[in-house]
Each structure stands twice: as C-alpha cells, then as structure tokens.
Target: DUF899 domain-containing protein
Amino acid sequence: MDLSTRPVVSAAEWEQARQELLVREKEMT
Model:
C-alpha cells in the first residue's frame, strides 16, 4: 500500500479501521 500514490483516507475512516484492529487483537489474546 503506497500512501504517496493512494488518495488520502479520511481521519475518521483511519481511526475506525485502527480501532477494529485493536479489538481483533484483544479477542485473540
């Protein structure tokens, strides 16, 4: 994923994706 060529994702979308990752990691442990 090349950030220099991709359209910038909105901060809200990025934050949501990051939160989902954190939740998945907690469920795995």
